[in-house]
Amino acid sequence: ANGSKWERERAAAGIAGHLGDAADSPLATILSNADTGIKRAVLDATAALPSGVEMRKRFADDPDVTVRAAVVGAIPDAAVESEIALIRTALADPDPIVRSNAIDRFGAWKNAPPEEMLATLFDAEHRASSDTLNDARLSAIAAIGAFDNAKLMDSEGKASRFVGMEEFLRGLLSDRDPV
Asked: Which whole-number Å values give the CA distances from 114 to 32, 53, 103, 148, 179, in the listed order?
């Protein structure tokens, strides 16, 4: 291996970004014994490529938390619907950074049933409230705040499906956590 760690990561990203979908791509050889930095660089470089889906599946349960976080973070908005199973799995990850990325991607799911969306986000916030890091909790609160409440209204403009948003928000005001 020639060059610095950074140079090797950039080279792998360049190859992945330009040749990731090519039939004769050297990517498989590069990834055969890649370190975590190269895996993250390749995930980032292939995010929007068709081969990115396979890269994310390949590394979704990597033992390194930074690689798992990069897997979820590399899912483009346009692919959230098709990769929701991977996102759901990451919502249960023991690491709050991985869950933070998963919550962000889950919040970008445009066709989610509104009740399921809010219930999942409330559950994620509740779980994250006991984490030592607040990343997942902040992501959940941001996603809840960005939720389109109009999806919960009936044709007369009344909240017809989900009750609990006001109670949740008021609870945050009295929460001792400085988040």
From this structure: 42, 26, 15, 9, 25
In whole angstroms, what separates CA 130 from the centre of its chain?
A: 20
What is the spatial distance between Cα 150 and Cα 81, in angstroms, rounded to a whole number?
21
Q: How far apart are CA 18 and CA 16, in angstroms?
A: 6
- Give the torsion through C-alpha atoms of 59, 60, 63, 67, to 10 deg: 70
| Structure confidence at residue 93 (pLDDT) | 97
Are 134 and 128 spatial neighbours (Cβ–Cβ below 8 Å)?
Answer: yes
pLDDT surpassing 70 at residue 84: yes
Mark out the alpha helices in the chain (DSSP H runs).
5-19, 27-31, 36-45, 50-59, 65-73, 84-91, 96-107, 114-128, 135-146, 165-174
- pTM of the predicted model, to two decimals? 0.83
Please give the Cα distance from 102 to 99 (Å, whole number). 5
pLDDT of 155 strictly over 80: no
Per the structure block, which two tokens stand in for 98?
Answer: 């991985």
On whether the CB atoms of residues 146 and 107 are closer than 8 A, the answer is yes
How many whole angstroms from its chain centre is CA 135?
12
d(CA 96, CA 133): 7
